[in-house]
Design brief:
single chain; 577 residues; Porin; Immunoglobulin-like; 5-stranded mixed beta sheet; 28 strands; 19% helix
């Protein structure tokens, strides 16, 4: 087989065939419908491929022509009749007339085909052999390229040719290759003309106002150069090329359409197409913000944090304002400095704007509570006064004050104590206006619960009224009456006597020898508690045996000439108070 290919390449006929095919491929014409009748006329080159010796026969026959006619029943299938004539000076003359099916594959201007033929195969030899008619077959294919409406170039046709002849002792057999090229004359058409069409598209299909939209059109099956004419519904669009820019400035949200009209100037060469795009409703950003921390000391700073997003996917910028203080920052965080602001609430406004012109803006607020500056350190005088307000308890004689004389019952030593307390407390209120005093009344366990409860109420009322008379605001005094509840225990009194640094050993022993009297007197009292707005400080309790009026305070009988004891018929025996 490779020897056959080399022989083909060396022949002059092959190069002639190649030249014709190359010229035809440069003359491609316009697309038309497949033809109904094809008549081929062209040059033909034959390599017989003799398998039996023939005297004086040429290996290649480069003189020849082929004429064929094909009728197509539809777009692809037809009947082909082929006639070939090959001759030379010193070789057999070969003449063929054969027919058979042909199948083509139109693809625009290019049409490949294949055929299979059978029929008469005639060989003419020199005397004494003469002529011989026999059967033969031809099978192969080729490619046609249309260059004009009714003319195509057959770039090549390559066939396998087979025949068997009989001259008696000489029975030559052909098994060779036939190559042809030339022109195909075409008549009629199969099917209807393919109409021209157009397709339009836009990039992008959904935009915001002011964003660019590119519209494009593509034409199909046009025979000539296409002209474009653009128009739009509710939009400004123009141009004469296959693409154009659509101006969306000032458009309201909604759907819009652009149309392209295509024409090649020929009859029927007109088509149009449309494409739509949408202008979207712009959405403002969404923002929330917070402060960290939400409470700062006077002069402190807080970080303001913004959490913002754009539903439309736009780029955001940030800004901040504050009702007081100083705020710095232009991204998702800012710093609030409370210096210069008064104690109280500072409102911070966080703003997020998108990259439109003008931008869409959203705002959110957060608050920062600035605490008052810490109070100045207390002075030595203030500390001393606060210590002095940690008073001794105020003690009462047995059954005092009475029901008849509720404004009595205070001894001189206890009045002096309360007078000093009132003076210090009024001065203390100037620095601590929310301070207060709590008075808690007690009675010794003698007497009934009802009697002792009423007695302790008179005692705290007596102390309260005395302090009010000294100028202490009544609103700064609170009272509690416990009756004989919550009394000091024997061990508590003994422990206090043992820890009292003012008693000598002899005095301490003397007091211990009179414990029953001391315990009773220790529970006839009003305790004073200082409430300074931050912590409560109980009064320091000094017991009745330390007072200048200790004999009266320790007396278990109660009553004086100036302040008679209540009648036993009314309230019971005061000795049992």
């Amino acid at each position: 087989m490779h020897m056959l290919i080399l022989k083909v390449l060396k022949s002059r006929g092959f190069f002639t065939l190649l030249a014709v095919a190359t010229l035809a491929s440069t003359l491609l014409g316009q697309e038309n419908l497949p033809s109904r009748f094809d008549v081929f006329t062209g040059y033909s080159w034959l390599h017989p491929g003799y398998q039996t010796y023939i005297p004086n026969a040429q290996e290649n026959i480069d003189k020849g022509f082929t004429v064929s006619g094909a009728y197509f029943f539809n777009r692809n299938i037809g009947l082909d009749i082929d006639s070939g004539n090959h001759y030379g000076c010193c070789c057999p003359r070969i003449f063929t007339v054969e027919a058979g099916p042909i199948v083509r594959f139109p693809a625009g201007r290019v049409t490949p085909f294949v055929h299979a033929l059978a029929g008469l195969h005639r060989m003419e030899l020199r005397p004494p052999f003469g002529d011989d008619n026999h059967y033969g077959v031809i099978a192969g294919g080729g490619v046609d390229v249309r260059i004009m409406r009714h003319v195509s170039v057959r770039l090549f046709q390559a066939d396998y040719e087979y025949a068997q002849h009989n001259y008696g002792l000489l029975q030559p057999k052909l098994s060779g290759v036939r190559l042809s090229t030339g022109l195909v004359w075409q008549f009629g058409s199969v099917g209807k003309p393919v109409p021209v069409t157009a397709a339009c598209s836009v990039q992008a299909t959904s935009v915001f106002v002011g964003e660019s939209v590119t519209a494009s059109a593509i034409g199909y099956n046009f025979r000539r150069e296409v002209r474009y004419d653009w128009s739009g519904t509710g939009v400004k669009v123009s141009g004469s090329s296959s693409s154009t820019q659509v101006d969306t400035a000032g458009l309201a949200p909604g759907s819009y359409q652009v149309t392209a009209n295509l024409s090649d100037g020929s009859r029927g060469g007109v088509a149009s197409c449309s494409a739509s795009f949408a202008v979207k409703q712009p959405n403002p950003p969404v923002i929330s913000c917070s402060s960290d921390p939400a409470v700062v000391q006077f002069g402190g700073t807080s970080i303001i944090i913004s959490n913002a997003s754009s539903p439309d996917g736009r780029r955001l910028t940030y800004s901040y304002t504050a009702s007081a203080g100083n705020i710095v920052g232009n991204n998702t965080t800012a710093t609030l400095d409370s210096n210069g602001a008064q104690p109280g609430m500072i409102t911070v406004t966080c703003n997020a704007g998108d990259d439109r012109n003008p931008p869409l803006v959203a705002s959110s607020t957060t608050t920062v509570n600035v605490l008052a500056p810490p109070p100045p350190a207390p002075t030595a005088e203030f500390i001393a006064r606060e210590k002095r307000l940690a008073l001794h308890s105020v003690y009462f004689a047995t059954a005092r004050p009475t029901v008849e004389h509720p404004d009595g019952g205070l001894l001189s030593s206890q009045e002096n104590t309360l007078t000093a307390l009132a003076s210090d407390f009024k001065t203390y209120l100037q620095s601590k206006p929310d301070a207060s005093l709590t008075l808690e009344g007690h009675a010794d366990p003698r007497g009934s619960n009802e009697y002792n409860q009423a007695l302790t109420e008179r005692r705290v009322d007596r102390v309260k009224h005395f302090l009010v008379e000294q100028g202490v605001p009544e609103a700064s005094i609170q009272t509690k009456a416990f009756g004989k509840q919550e009394n000091l225990t024997d061990n508590e009194v003994k422990d206090a006597i043992g820890r009292n640094p003012e008693l000598s050993t002899e005095e301490r022993q003397k007091v211990l020898n009179n414990m029953r009297v001391i315990i009773l007197a220790s529970n006839r009292r009003v305790d004073i508690t200082l409430n300074n707005g931050a912590t409560s400080q109980e009064s320091v309790r000094e017991y009745p045996f330390n007072a200048a009026d200790s004999l009266t305070l320790l007396d278990t009988r109660g009553g004086t000439k100036k302040d008679p004891a209540p009648s036993a018929k009314k309230r019971g025996d005061p000795k049992q108070e």
